Amino acid sequence: MSDNYKKAIPVPGPESVPFWEGAKNHQLMAQKCLRCHHHWFPPSSVCTSCGSRDIEWVALSGKGTVFSFVVFHRLYHKGWDGEIPYVVGVIELKEGARMLSNVIGVPVENVKCDMPVEVVFDDVTEKLTLPKFKPV
Amino acid sequence: MIEPSTHMRDKYALVGAGHSRLGKVPGVSAQGLLEEAMLNSLEDAGLTTRDVDGLICRGPDEIYTFHQVMGERLGIDAAFSTTLTNGGASQVMGVALAAMAIDAGMASCVLVGYGRDNWSRVHANKENHMRSSGRPQQMYGMEFGPEFGYYGAIAAHGFGAQRHMHEYGTTREQFGAISVAFRDHAIKNPDAVMQKPLTIEDYLAGRMIVEPFSLFDCSLQTDAAGAVVVTSTERAKDLRQKPVLIKGFGTGNNISGWFNGNNMTHTGAIQSGKAAYKMAGVSPMDIDYAQIYDCFTYMVLVQLEDYGFCKKGEGGEFVASGALTLDGILPTNTSGGQLSEAHVEGMLQVVEGVRQLQGIYGPKRQVPNAEIGLVSGHGGNTVCESTLILGAM
Fold first, then answer.
1. Is-above-0.90 flag for pTM?
2. Which chain B residues touch A72 with a CB distance below 8 Å?
3. DSSP string, B190-258
4. Are A98 and B148 a contacting pair at CB < 8 A?
5. Which domain holds residue A104?
6. Please, what are the domains in chain B?
């Protein structure tokens, strides 16, 4: 199936390797501050709430809501040919961090802001797993 | 809390404004277009390249130190010069920076401009179109975007529009009122690219691109450039045009990110506007017209709220009331804006803001009794804002 995968393959930056390794193991990873317990995404080396450098990677619950979303009706990349319309959402995880992903498993016209969703892991190639979200 | 200094109020002025040919201008580079706009702005002021000792500009982002490229073409050594990289907030900020540079004694006459050859780059032929399509959203480069099919500025702004619709009940018809008003203004402007009338029915029938945005929510892809000349008000009195005073300016940058907090519905315009009003000593009630950065319809609506022209959440009703037309309570984007005139990332909004106070238009295009105007710049990764408040001499 790897040979047939035509969508963009992410190239992890050095700080985001734990996120992609976690996804491969079907865990949704983000960073957490050990001082104020804030969670955030994308990765950095400092708590984006209190400024502490005392931080760690943790597995999230995978539960959250759709903070906002858009529906692509135009083909921007040939890998999505045949899948239009598709939904790209900003997911607010229960722990507070927000991340970009796809909302799947629901007709596009039924996607709403604040709709509860949970993570599903899509093993798109042998080396790549994408965390996506479906309605609870 | 930041307290903007008021000592610069009315001390510096815009003394010339110009633009290049707009639309499809094949065979001319971004540099060539900007050169055209800069020379037109100097001519408007009655000045030449020999009078310029400051150069602030922006061009296609991949051209290194663009101001040096322009300096070489124009034959200018500048006491003060730089290229700005704050997206669509750069151009208004360039005018503010020019005033600051003159105030600090670093320059006396600063040329500010931006040029882009976007139509030629993207649409002139199939090869260019293929190359530009599918380019990832630049912020994270190759992750957290393209793998989910997330491409283009339209989707980023669409998130904000969708959230605003959810929280405040804003509708697509209300976004449409913005497109329709600006198209009417474009039709009064012979240089504007879009000359075909647009009705709300046309808007609603528009092809969906990235929902909630259709074709008519999106700004144009054009070859175009704009430029202005900034100097002291004292010196401005001897020049060709009636000087346009820089009453105040501000900046606000929600660079913690578009996805953070309520940044999608409460933009950098809140902070930027507060600073600009304070420096200028005016309030939203005093503003006679606005030139608002209109990459997408929603950004006009939310900025109007954030600048205090209506309450938060009431932008939809405000724009649908007819407020933005030339005879409305806040004539906005009076040359057609980026949605219908041409898209130069806010530079043409600065040019139009100046011209309304130079009083050069006939009754068809002139905002009646215009004395104070507001110009906004918005951009970067949708989080940066800059504001100018201009006044008649």
1. yes
2. 149, 155, 210-211
3. TT-S--S---HHHHHTSPEEEETEEGGGBPP--EEEEEEEEEEHHHHTTSSSPPEEEEEEEEEE-TT-T
4. no
5. 12-135
6. 12-121+220-392 (3.40.47.10)
